[in-house]
Write a structure and sequence with these properties.
Length: 288
């Protein structure tokens, strides 16, 4: 017993024997409680723990801030592993798609806001970074119907710079290390702004291409429908062109009126048939 579903193997749909090996299709069904999602949950739980450790004993105790830095470091490390594990071992779930970016922004936002509340980090830096993250998240939802903006190398480098700089601010540093952390934060801010503008450019380009492709597809569909609707009309027009002179030669009354009311006769006498009533309705709808 291979465990492959009967529908896929062309079988009769009989149930697999108990104790048989699972097939590929069954193995690929990722459970909610997989290692990637567990790491994401751990990172979410570390957010309040990090804040409590950072503000313990007034927020300026070097020992407790070292503990807070350890919690922050664990959260950032799990951020590197959970996504890799999910993609490498086919553990991607809907929960992970939603919870992973929330956990990323939660730990970084908690660190920046807490450091600004303690007076260690200027509020304008926190505002720029958080505004960028929120704006890019909303923009991804704006273009998700058209395309998915992939994570770029610049975005990953930005995340690394932000995590390093925020971690250095969590620690109580003085002297050259305090100066170094300031410049590291400036690098993070520059990368935050530059990558944010690049994401906006990508979103605009992808949305324009998607809309152009949709319009082209609609145009091709309309042309195909018009051609399909015009084919019977062409036959009627040929018949009318032959019947019209014959009726005029025999002097049949009402021939002119019948020709005018036919669906495929042009008053100008040309051989090109009038488009059928379906095409007329399409034109009227387009004008409205």
């Amino acid at each position: 017993m291979t465990g492959v579903p009967a529908s896929a193997a062309g079988g009769s749909g009989a149930k697999p024997v108990r104790g048989g090996k699972l097939g590929t299709a069954a193995v690929n069904q990722a459970s909610l409680w997989n290692i990637a999602n567990i790491l994401t949950m751990v990172r979410l739980l570390l957010v309040p723990g990090f804040v409590l450790l950072l503000f313990h004993n007034g927020g300026y105790d070097p020992v407790w801030r070292s503990f807070a830095w350890a919690a922050f470091a664990v959260a950032m490390i799990t951020d590197l592993f959970d996504g890799h594990l999910a993609r490498a071992y086919n553990l991607v779930t809907d929960f992970g798609k939603i919870a992973d970016p929330i956990a990323d922004k939660a730990i970084m936002g908690a660190a920046l806001v807490s450091l600004s509340v303690l007076g260690d980090l200027p509020w304008w830096i926190t505002g720029v970074i958080l505004a960028r993250e929120l704006g890019i998240t909303l923009m991804r939802f704006w273009v998700i119907r058209h395309a998915v903006i992939p994570a770029s190398r610049g975005g990953k480098l930005k995340t690394l710079a932000q995590g390093t700089a925020a971690g250095m601010y969590v620690l109580v540093l003085t002297g050259p290390l305090a100066t170094l952390r300031f410049w590291m934060m400036m690098v993070a801010v520059v990368l935050t702004v530059v990558t944010g503008l690049d994401y906006v450019r990508q979103a605009v380009v992808l949305r324009r291409r998607s809309l152009a492709a949709e319009r082209a597809a609609v145009g091709r569909t309309a042309e195909a429908l018009n051609e399909a609707a015009g084919s019977p009309g062409a036959g009627v027009a040929d018949a009318g062109a032959v019947a019209g002179p014959a009726a005029g030669a025999s002097g049949a009354p009402g021939a002119s009126g019948a020709g005018a009311s036919g669906p495929a006769v042009r008053m100008s006498g040309g051989s090109t048939p009038v488009e059928p009533t379906v095409g007329a309705r399409d034109g009227a709808d387009a004008e409205r």
